[in-house]
Predict the 3D structure of the following.
Amino acid sequence: MRRAGSWKVWVLFLFLLVGLGVGIWGTLRAVMPEKGVYRVNGVYKDRWGETMILVQHEPVPGLMETMEFMSFFAESKELLDAAKLNKGDRIRFTIKQVPDRLLIVKIEKLP
């Protein structure tokens, strides 16, 4: 014999299950917005030339583990100039896999 309120439990369960799925999907999209594009958090260490920077970064899910130091090329000199980075700044940047490198397409300072 079923109780009269049991359907409410099932509706609540399904609602929570859908909410969990949407949350997981949103988290994955925040890290990997599209195929071959990744968001990375790290610390700016230095700049070499017009478009290459040295970064200490956190793990990049689906791409690589934490790196003590790694160099990245920016899409343009103007992109790096606009960020106005100082050594030690916490940064978030978006990289895109191109045939011969990982290219920074967006960069911002974190508070």
In short: The chain is about 30% helix and 40% strand.
